[in-house]
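USER: For my understanding, would you kindly supply a protein sequence with its structure tokens?

ASSISTANT:
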Amino acid sequence: QLQLVESGGGVVQPGGSLRLSCAASGFTLDDYAIAWFRQAPGKEREGVSCITSSGETRNNAGDVSGRFSTSRENAKNTVYLQIDGLKPEDTAVYYCAAHYSCVGYKFRKRYEYDYWGQGTQVTVSS
């Protein structure tokens, strides 16, 4: 079965850190760019970061810049999203998605991505 599987979410206190994983099953991530999105209750999906197949990263501007970083480990067929300095407003379900490019990743329709994960919940609360 060809799929992406996210993991690493959980409940964390403000100021804490999490590392989310996005692992591919049934195919190799080597040739794919991987984008990270999040969706909070009642809000639209938001793109937060993207890493190209060659390892270049593009982070969303604003509040997430400097706190979110993306990396990949092709030997493990996995991409990571490191989130530091977590804030309550970071609470959301985080998803990863595969496409051949990071260009315009925030604006693509869901169906334009080849694969999506099922999401992992991140809750920031004291």
